[in-house]
């Protein structure tokens, strides 16, 4: 084997993985669908303000504004995490279907907040300026 035929795979650090997560358009869409599934029935007005905003961040991300949408996604995920964390849930209801969906939603919101915050902080807008 020659050196040309061997391709080295580099290991990504945790920061690079979170940044890639924050620049992806799929996690805000997944979070929006989990929030909608949880608060659609019975309809709750304030939590249902988050899915359209998160869907918009996914759309803007697909249009090429990766750095700005990462920040918006992180902000909305953090706000939802703050809102959802204020509600108390009895211990036995945490292991039902609604409790598991709530836990998954809050976990995804936390990862979105960290990943989007890192992508926004470490992102470069020079690439986006040249696209216009």
Distance between the amino and carboxyl termini: 45 Å
Low-confidence residue ranges? none
The assigned structural class equals mainly alpha
> Any idea what the shape is?
globular
**Series of secondary-structure elements, N-terminal to C-terminal:** HHHHHH
Q: What's the average pLDDT? A: 87
Major beta-sheet overview: none
- As a percent range, the share of helical residues equals 55-70%
For the CA atoms, what is the radius of gyration?
A: 18 Å
Keywords: Membrane, Transmembrane, Transmembrane helix
Transmembrane segments: 43-62, 68-85, 106-123
Structure, explained:
Helix 4 runs antiparallel to helix 5. The N and C termini lie far apart (45 Å). This protein is mainly α and 132 residues long. The longest helix is centred in the C-terminal third of the chain and has 26 residues, at 97-122. The model has no long low-confidence stretch (mean pLDDT 87). The chain has 6 helices and no strands. It has one domain (14-122). 68% of the residues lie in helices and 0% in strands. It has helices at 14-23, 26-39, 50-62, 66-86, 97-122, 126-131. Keywords: Membrane, Transmembrane, Transmembrane helix. The chain crosses the membrane at residues 43-62, 68-85, 106-123.
